[in-house]
Amino acid sequence: xxxxxxxxxxxxxxxxxxxxxxxxxxxxxxxxxxxxxxxxxxxxxxxxxxxxxxxxxxxxxxxxxxxxxxxxxxxxxxxxxxxxxxxxxxxxxxxxxxxxxxxxxxxxxxxxxxxxxxxxxxxxxxxxxxxxxxxxxxxxxxxxxxxxxxxxxxxxxxxxxxxxxxxxxxxxxxxxxxxxxxxxxxxxxxxxxxxxxxxxxxxxxxxxxxxxxxxxxxxxxxxxxxxxxxxxxxxxxxxxxxxxxxxxxxxxxxxxxxxxxxxxxxxxxxxxxxxxxxxxxxxxxxxxxxxxxxxxxxxxxxxxxxxxxxxxxxxxxxxxxxxxxxxxxxxxxxxxxxxxxxxxxxxxxxxxxxxxxxxxxxxxxxxxxxxxxxxxxxxxxxxxxxxxxxxxxxx
Length: 395
Hints:
The structure is a single chain. This protein has 395 residues and is of the alpha/beta class. The protein has three domains: 2-138, P-loop containing nucleotide triphosphate hydrolases (Rossmann fold), CATH 3.40.50.300; 148-315, Orthogonal Bundle (Arc Repressor Mutant, subunit A), CATH 1.10.10; 334-395, no CATH class. The chain has helices at residues 2-14, 36-42, 58-70, 91-104, 119-123, 125-129, 177-189, 194-201, 207-225, 248-260, 264-277, 289-315, 319-332, 337-349, 353-370, 377-394, and strands at 22-25, 46-50, 80-84, 109-112, 131-134, 152-157, 163-166, 169-171, 191-192, 230-233, 236-239, 243-247. The strands form three sheets. Strands 2-3-4-1-5 form a five-stranded parallel β-sheet, with helices on both faces. Strands 8-7-6-12 form a four-stranded mixed β-sheet. β3, α4 (91-104) and β4 form a beta-alpha-beta unit. α11 runs antiparallel to α12 (289-315), α14 (337-349) runs parallel beside α16 and α15 (353-370) packs antiparallel against α16 (377-394).
């Protein structure tokens, strides 16, 4: 699924404005390093510097870049400088360094890679004018930080360990697990009553006690964010209307739903985009009944999306991709006999009989352990065919 994003990066790179001398790879793009080979293919010579340390001072930043660039021929004649993990430098320090570099070396381009957006760079009008951000695709959680909305932009990534970004800055210090859990719950529900909140988090407390704890925790959430997360109207808590929310779970679900009514070509693209958003189980490290329930829901939705895409790739004759999708979908539910059937048939088309038999045996063990039943007769026939294929190969 990384391919679709890499192609988007290349397309937007080709379409970048002529004045762009600073190329910022989007911090939400997890495969930034795929772009490095493109840089080396286009620019010559290229200086690659991977920064180390944290909150680098001006001297430390300058020293590291000079030391590593001198061993690669120096910056004087370089066509491009790649600064990997640029977020290890203080934002303002990086801004100052780039301002000086672009003035002294009029020919050089700079590629910035990191886990956070170098906001000070795009706040500087002169540097912003010379910058481009790649890739930009709000529909898959890649907003354009170079053109932030007038409202607060809140990005919530719940598919995986959980990450929150407000106006381009990561929120990391939650002052406890409860404020963080309540935050994700409120975002995930979108609209929820006080009673539902109390039953989820404090079912054993009296209403008075739960009310006190809720308001203290909600206030802590707002303090952490620096904005009011919710507003109360018509008996429900909503995400505040002056917040522009980008929520990966909602984006995933919307893309999958759109695929159900789209033509084949567009549906395949929508499903592929949806799968790029799925970077791990829903809040994989968060405990709690509500989180566990949503985790199982999203795992099922993820598996179903892969199987839907597999039907399109199979119809297109791309059986390698189809097999890969089916194998990944099976990991979301190892008792799916329909998926095992598809995998066994695909393996047998390739005369990979041992692999087909291994998939059957794992299913058999799983069904016996959890349900006390055997695989369906059609799967038993496929097993027999696989065993016959193995015997024939040894003759």
